[in-house]
Amino acid sequence: MTFSIVARDPETRAIGVAVQSKFVSVGSVVPFASADAGAIATQSFANVEYGPDGLDLLRRGHDAAAVVETLTAADSEAESRQVGVVGRDGSVAGFTGDECFDTAGDVQGEMYTVQGNILENEATVRAMADTYEETDGGLPERLLAALHAGNEAGGDSRGEQSAALYVVKPEGGYDGGNDRWVDVRVDDHDAPIDELERVFKLYDVTLLEREPPAETTELTGETARAVQRTLADLGLYDGDVSEVFDAEARDALESFRGLNNFENHSLDVLEDALANGWADADGEGEPRLVDAIWHGLSRLDRV
Predict the structure, then answer these.
(1) At CB < 8 A and 24+ separation, what contacts does 88-96 make?
(2) Coil vs helix vs strand at 302
(3) Each residue of 225-251: pLDDT tens digit?
């Protein structure tokens, strides 16, 4: 009762897994990834040994097809399993055992594989593949878009519960200390993919770095007023609400930046992001501030 996508971005050398399931904490079971090896999704009576064993095989130079063959050949219950593998070398393979519950299947493309079981229909995996190929942006955004598309096309026939996004790249982790570039999970939620996207945006703004803009835009006009009102509602600003984002308003934004650990981005870049992202943002109050910052930053390349 799970659908997932495993994919690699050759430009950034990022590789990872996105998954949704009617199963609690799917992120603790399905995704495995290592920047020096590749990424694996194991599901449908998941054999979690496929993760470390498969990564070890990739690390030793086996391609994805050989990894799948080796893993399933050694597993007496392979026909009830489903697995997708993408190697650091770009090789791709998937497997759906004959005893997986219907509807189950997998589809592969260039540097990605999609797989699902107990699905509402076969269109789920096809929609995920098509959307991944057609979506612009970074690997995390493309993986999330694929999850949304699969869910909208039919998804898990038993419903929704949890979702996860796990992406690695060399020195992509906190302060460059490991390869864990994106690691977000929603363990139990009525709309886990929507919630996963919300958490990812917060994670992105807080932990991932972007190239600074060549020029920054100041907050003015109605957008400045809206941001000031929101900061006032949060208890951070008690000045006059106007179309000028003055020093007092910037001090309030600096307080907001510090409270939310957004130090990856300078105050000027944060103001620029709000100016460029406010119109595209959703929600009210603090959630809209964060969403606006994310939209404004999204036009900049990640480091």
Answers:
(1) 88/8, 88/13, 88/15, 88/35, 88/36, 88/37, 88/38, 88/58, 89/38, 89/63, 90/8, 90/10, 91/63, 91/64, 91/65, 92/64, 93/63, 93/64, 93/65, 93/67, 93/68, 94/68, 95/68, 96/44
(2) strand
(3) 999 999 999 999 999 999 999 999 999
Has residue 74 got a pLDDT over 80?
yes
Residues 6+ away with beta carbon under 8 Å from 194: none
Taking phi over 0 as left and psi of -120 to 50 as alpha, with beta for the rest, 234 belongs to alpha
pTM over cut 0.85: yes
As separate numbers, helices (DSSP H) first and strands (DSSP E) second, the chain gives 9, 10
Determine contact, residues 101/75, Cβ cutoff 8 Å.
no
Helix, strand, or coil (residue 180):
strand
Supply 66's token pair: 């050989």
β-strand 2-9 against 112-117: which pairing, if any?
Answer: antiparallel
Identify whether the C-beta of residue 18 lies closer than 8 Å to the C-beta of residue 128.
Answer: no
Range of the domain at 177: 2-189
271 and 149 housed in the same domain:
no
Query: What strands lie across the sheet with 112-117, from one edge to the other?
Result: 105-109, 112-117, 2-9, 14-21, 162-168, 180-186
According to DSSP, the β-strands at 112-117 and 162-168 are unpaired
Q: Return d(Cα 91, Cα 96) in angstroms, integer.
A: 18
Phi first, then psi: give them for residue 202, nearest 5 degrees: -65, -45
Indicate whether 96 and 7 sit together in one domain.
Answer: yes
Q: What is the CATH number of the domain that holds 51?
A: 3.60.20.10
